[in-house]
Every structure is written in C-alpha cells, then in structure tokens.
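Example 3.2
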Amino acid sequence: MANHRGLIVDVDLRSRDNNLAHRTREIDRRRLIVRRGQPFSITLQCSESLPPKHHLELVLHLGKRDEAVTKVQRERGAGDKWWFNQQEAQDEMLLTLHSPADAVIGHYRLAVLVMSPDGHIIEKSDKIGFHLLFNPWCKDDAVYLPDETLLQEYVMNEDGVIYMGSWDYIKSIPWNYGQFEDYVMDICFEILDNSKEALRNSEMDTEHRSDPVYVSRMITAMVNSNGDRGVLMGRWHEPYSDGVAPHRWTGSVPILQQWSNAGARPVKYGQCWVFAAVACTVLRCLGIPTRLITNFLSAHDVDGNLSVDILLNEELESLDSRGKQDSSWNFHCWVESWMKRDDLSKGNDGWQVLDPTPQELSDGEFCCGPCPVTAIKEGNVGVKYDASFVFAEVNADIIHWIVQRDGQRKKIREDQGTVGRNISTKSVYGDFREDVTQHYKYPEGSQKEREVYERAGRRVTEPTNEIPEPGQLQLSIKHAKPVFGTDFDVIVEVKNKGDRDAHAQLTMLVLAVTYNSLHRGECQRQTISVSVPAHRAHKEVLRLHYDEYARCVSEHHLIRVKALLEAPGEEPMMTVANIPLSMPELLVQVPGQAFLWQQVTAFISFANPLPVPLKGGVFTVEGAGLLSATEIHINGDVAPGQKVSVRVSFSPIRTGVRKLLVDFDSDRLKDVKGVATVVVRKRYG
C-alpha cells in the first residue's frame, strides 16, 4: 500500500470549460458549477499509471452531514443513476461524470478512491467539491424549456422591468435581479437550508431537492419571514425608519446579502414587488425559468367566496373591524416558474404561479403555489397548490356595501370583469410590456368564460339584493394624468338620461391610499346638492392642490376619489377613481465606451419638481456586473427647481449588456428611478 501513496498528484476540475458548457460561467469561473443531466469532465494528474487490476471508484457525498452518499456506477446502467467513464492518456486520466436529469441539486463532494484487487482503498482524494443546478436546457429535466430566446430571458437575464401603477396608467421600474453576482448562489442554498423542512428533517429535505415543485414552494415560503427564518419582513405603511422603505430597493442582491450576513435574520422591509423580485432572483439562479408577473386590480379574497366585499359606513369610510377584510389591490406582483407537474393530471405543465408575498396560509405556511396557470384559465380550482385563491385574484367580483347604522347592508356598486386587468410581464425581446391576460382567462363575457365560472363553483348571476337596472342618473369621474408636485382638477359628472329634472345629493371624497388599498388619510370631503335638467349633465370640479394632498399622500403617490350620488326614488350609486401621480425621471448618462476592469464614470442629474425644498437627498446606484449598491448623499437642501448632479465611477467586472440603476430618495420625494444601459467589452490588443 505504501508503494502507491501519492498516485493521484492533482485533480483539475476544468471549471472554465465545464462552466462555459453548462452556462454557469457568469456565476463563477473558479468553482465547478454544473447542471444536471449534462456530462462534465475532470482530470486526474497521476504520478504513474494505475497498477494492474487496480481500479478507481467515485463516491458522492451530499448535504452538510452527508445526508446522501452515492456510489457512481462505472458504466451507464438501468434507471437514472450517476455513472462515469474514464480515458487514460500519458500520466493523466480524464473522468467524465454523467448525472441523472432528476438528480438532487446542491453542493456535492466527490471522493476518488484507488482500489486494490482485493477491495482495499489504496488512496483517497476527497477535497473535490462542485455545485449541481437544475438544467432547463436538458430535455429530461422537469424544468426543460425548449426555446433559447426564453431561456436567455428567464434564466440568464439579470436585469428586469417591474410593472406597477394602475391598469389604466401602467408604469415600470427597472430591477437588478443579479442572480449571478458573487455568492448569490451560495445564499440561495443557504435559504433552502434554513427552511422549516430542512431544519426539521434534513435527510428528507435533501431527497426532495430533486423536485422543482418542492424547491419552488420552499422558496416562496422562505422569501417572506412569516413563521420561519425567511429573507424579508413585509410592511405596508410608514414608518420604515428601522429598516429600508420597500420602494427604495433597486435590486435583490443587497437584500440577500444582508439576510445572509445577519445570520438568517429578516431584512426590513418588503412589499409585493420586492418579494416577487427576490424570489425571481433565487429561482433563476437555481436554474428554474422564472418571470415576474403584475396583476392589475388584484383581488384578495379572504373568505373564498369569489367576491371581494368592501364594507363602508355611511360616511364612506372603510370598515375593517375584523382586522382582516377582503380588498382589491391596484396591482399585485408574483412570479411564474416553468416546470412539469408530474404530481398532477395531464394538462397542468408549463407556467406555475408562485406568490411569496405573505397573504394567506397554505397548508399551514405563508406561501402560495406552485399553481398551474392553465388550471386558473380553466377554472379547475381544486388543483394544488392554492388554485382557488389565485383564481379569485384574477376573477373575483368587487362589491361595495354601505353598512347602515342599524347594521343593514346596502349594495351601492358591483364591478364584474374589472379584476385581473392587463396582466403583465417583461417581454423577452426588450424592455417593454407583454400582456399575458389571455393565459389566465378567456375573453370577458365569452361563452368559455361563463363555463369556467360555473366550473369554479361561482354564481354566474347573484339572486339576492341585486342592484336594479341603471336609473335616469349616471355618475362618472374624469381626470388628467397629473404629476406629483402640481395642482390638478378632478371632474365629477352627473348625467341625467331621464325626461324630468333630477335633484340629488353628491358626496365627493378625496383619500390618500396605498397600492393595496390601505387608507392613509382623508384629503378633502364635500357634500353638495345638485340639480340636473333632463338630458343634460352637471360637472363638479374638484381642485387638488399640492400643499393639501402632500400632507396625506402615501409613498405610493396614489389618490382615490369616491363619489356617492343619492337621489329620491333611485338606488344610491357610487363610483371610484384611482389617480396615480406620476414621478419625474432621473437622467443617467454613461458617456464613452466601457471596458472590463477599466474605470468608467456615470453622470446622474435630477431637478426638484416640487414647490418646496427637498431634505436628506440620497442616490442609490447599483448594477449587476458593474457595481454593488452604493449610496451618494447630497449635502444641504435641494431648492424648488434646483438641479442636482452627481458622478459615480466604477470598474465593470463582467462583459455584456448591463443596466445601471439609480434611485433617488428624500423627505418629500421618494421612489424616483433612472436607468442607463452600459455595453461592457473586453479590450483586445
């Protein structure tokens, strides 16, 4: 045995070549990172040839406490097993390892054993580590996606666009997913290792990590911190002073790093788009094709009756005595991941909804999905996971009730077909919006849509307390698209379609709300008597002044106007308009050409559009492959109309088309975003 000590002199994992072939070079060039179902080769440098009748054995160890130990077969056997073949050349041995397409993902340690003819270990080399990821390029992998254009976007693209605002005024913000930034992959596995399942039974958890259904469900539970050691704590109202306000984040990487550095303590704070973006980063990093989805006018149906009942008192104020009431959100973000659903009947493969925002419990955990998008479209609400909840998010009716002093409810408005509008994602062809509503529902009012409603167990017509046919009066609200900082008009119009003059009482209420319908304060209220001649219209103009609405507006810069019309002999009617106030843009310029490892300077400028000074101004700059999140504080106040210019220099660390993201924040103006595209080249010669 002593004769052959030091037979294996060196092991070369050939990381550069393997990582290039496995499309993981963006993650790391030094460590070996490979995708399952695709072979990879390593070389052993030997001091001499193997003695006669001696042979090599390979053993794989997986998990922190060797939860799984696998002997690698010498040739392709029956079933899906790890196997290897070897070729000898001079004093070198080339070993090609083949992993099954359903192998467990994770950090493996490979031991190479030199065995004597009588089965003794002559030598052992076991300091060989590598990571194995899902492989959407492999046709036998459950996450296989047979379209290279889609793979380049949904796995490889680190830059995203998130849609927000309202269905009739869609805006977008850039986002840095940064799934290939340094150590993000390690943090993704750390997230899985901290899940309740992993901490409860690591052996069983390790076994299940071959299944993207299981892994994606664990990720949605772990992105929020409710009930576990998850990444982000949610908060939907100010103050955020003990953390970072949700709208200030421009990328996932600082959030993941902060969670990991703090020893798996939650990062403060997230809201739906932040939860969804972090989940998108983790899932793409692990190799599961994923895209971020925005559902406009999204219903949160607490009691599962497929209608969102909004209760108001006679002053039109929201009643929420139970602490948990149905609500409709201006927009809501989740992700879709692409995978086979072997746990379900045929027809449920493809895009799956995963929602990491903590809303309702699912099998005792704050997670949602994976739920097949096809099941939502067809109304198959019994399909796991959480199909009835997701179905309601895109299909529920919204019914407004006034609860009178005696407790009686009076229906004042019913909206069918307004929930689930303009469901959006970033296009694979560029930074523009793709509408995916037709993936979730059949055309409004079609025969197919009615069939789906009935299959979902939904009443197609509601028998009781029906609002009568519209009377002679009609009520509407019109407004321009105002910019935050300006004064603007809202016009409430009462039309009289009847043959006689009408007299009514009109109540107009201006509220500040968050994007998920939390009321932040009343800005204005007016009740007047109106007389409308037959076949004519009456217009009431509300002037909204910046100095009035600025006192109560939330960080989402959203104004809600409600108008209630009460006329003798007619049922009361209400209409609601959500008015998003648009934000000014930052100018971000990166002149000249950008080369790898060479300093480049970006110029950022911004003019204060408000009639008041801004205090505590701070720019946050980041970009995958360019620089990690950096803050630039502004000295002193920024006067009304004053232009602020800053510069930031950095040296790009990866080539390709990159995005530089900038956020500006101050005491009175928040969530101002800017972006520039930077093409990073290698310098030759």
